[in-house]
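FORM 7B: Structural annotation worksheet

SECTION A. Query
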Amino acid sequence: MLLHLSISQFTLVDQLELEFGPGTSTLTGETGAGKSITLDALGLALGGRGSAELVRTGANRADISATFDISEHPAAGPWLKSQELDAGQEVILRRTIGADGRSRAYINGQPVTLLQLRALGEQLIDIHSQHEHQSLLKKDTHRRLLDEFAQAQELAAETRSRYKTWQDQYRRYRTLANSVEEAEARRHLLQYQLKELEQLDLSEGEVEALESEQRQLANAGEILSGSYQLAALLSGGEGDIAEQIHRALQLLSAMPEQAPALVEVAQMLDSARIQVDEAAGTLSRHIDRFEMDPERLSEVEERLSAIYQAARKHRVQPKELPSLQQQLQEELDDIGSADALERLAAECEQLEQQFRKTAGKLSKLRAKAATALAHAVNQQLGDLAMPHAKVELALQTLDKPCSHGLEEVEILISTNPGQPPRALGKIASGGELSRVSLAIQVVTAQTSRTPTLVFDEVDVGIGGATGDVVGRLLRQLGETRNGRTGQVICVTHLAQVAARAHRQYLVEKHSDGERAFVALRELLNGERREEIARMLGGAPSTQSLAHAEEMLSRTH
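SECTION B. Predicted structure
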């Protein structure tokens, strides 16, 4: 859940600090006031595309940070630990963009890549833009929505992985079967690479041993100096540890009465004396055998350099070179063996069977979820003033399987009774498409594992009683979902939506005569009523204020 958003020197924002809580929050204001700037900044903190134009004029850099509570998020904590970025129950995502266009990303204060920032951000927030309904014209979007609703993302990912493995092996088979010349060239390359690796003659564990020896030889002076100092402390003369223990034992033996505790002390000191003597002996032998060998250091570093160079050439870790050598040898053996093609063909067949088994499970899951998703969306469309519209998800079996599975997914719609369902882009108008998009978003969000949902004017083209329904739906999404605290942030121009929210923020644009800047503040009590009245009909009047009061009262 998003707790805090800090925006500094971003487009028209000088400095902005926002606190968010659970439930539904709306951002309202005059047209052109900059309501979407806050969401643009949030998107940047989540790894969105940035440029120098986003930095406020005259500033050195834009700085955005977002703080999230991940105590109820099942996946964020393990992901952070896997990236060695764990910091407890809260996580801070930060993004800076310099006036020169250079961008930096941080998670919990540690520098990260944009890919890492985006990977975590996608788990924490799901942003639905006002133009998202346009993506409904793409079949890829239909498949993604269905898989998310079916909770089949992991199975879909496994299907893609198995397809890739199958196709990679099949391409290898075709290469070997159809191109003898290419196979022969590959044979020569493998022979050359193997000869280099055989000459290198790297053994298992050699890299670690050489690196350890190199560190010891490179720090020989410090190690020897420290060893001498340690030897002096143990038994190097007057006041050393051995002498101190000896004096303690003499003092104990001189006592006229040996109490049980003193006997125990004497035994422990005598054991310590033996340990110190053994440590001193071991250290002495270490010093006697210790050699500062610059020539050996040069040999070790030359050997390591050759190993590192070979690893870079083959794009593997140094310790992986022996394994690579074995793999290359196996591939060379395959090329040279008479039954290589037959073995590859059998492997391809096995991989295809594994893919089809996984894809078949995905198909069954999709078929079951398609009916449930269509039913849920159609219920929402009835509430959104499209009672005669019927959506269905068509699953068309493909002639050839692909990485996405065995079927193509497409959302079809019939907007009038008796009309056969057809593609969305051929039947639905812009306003209808927007409402279909909203219905799907509302349905899929209810099963989403993402704790925070952001809607950027998804209610465009909607008004009246339908707007009140949209507000009610968004408020429901902001309440507890899947046993976890819900949170919705929505930019809206509809009074009906704003009135249904748990809290409301006002976005205002000001000017000092030279520059414009955007400010945002939470509305409380009478302020909120006045803003709702303005949204209803311009300047607040007695009638619009009363209407606003009535709308707000219906949410409690």
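SECTION C. Observations
The chain has a mean pLDDT of 84. The first helix runs from residue 35 to 45.

SECTION D. Sign-off
Analyst initials: ____
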